[in-house]
Amino acid sequence: MKRDEFDHVLRAAAHALGQRDFLVIGTAALLGSYPEESLPERATRSREADLAPFDDPDGDKSMLLEGALDLGSQFEKTFTYYADGVDFRSGVAPYGWRNRLVKYRSPASEPGVGWCLEPYDLAATKICVGRAKDFEFVGALLDAGVIGKSNLMARISLMPKDRITPAQIDRAIRWLDGRQPR
Fold this sequence. Notes:
Number of domains: 2
Number of strands: 5
Strand content: 5-15%
Distance between the termini: 24 Å
Helix content: 40-55%
Oligomer: single chain
Strand order of the largest sheet: 3-2-1-5-4
Shape: globular
Structural class: alpha/beta
Number of helices: 8
């Protein structure tokens, strides 16, 4: 996703739900910390922004967002990118992630504001979940020097052990230890 697309999605989400603040948990969260020009192509090729509306105890707002801006919506058909309304109550991130959120706001996103996962929290979450595309994404960030191995290892150690299994953490660490720098 490009910055102008991210701005548009935040603006559209804010108008669709009548609220301004959204947690950004997917790859688009990087746009809160870095200009797209400084990111590897793999980090900006997604067409979606994963947005979790704040103050959504029952997940109803996430469902409304899904209908208005998700894959297959008129919004996506018109613009080719979209917002995936997510409910982060079941999500997982390293301890302390809420204190490290990166606020993203621009004149083009108004009235929408994105509270983006910090890049190391995002990367740790992705490689502990461990899908092939997540390893590819994190590998691209490491190869481009956007994130560093030692800081990522430290963040992996903060993953909640009651939500991520020891096997998932071990797999992430083995993958990170076995990577050959490019």
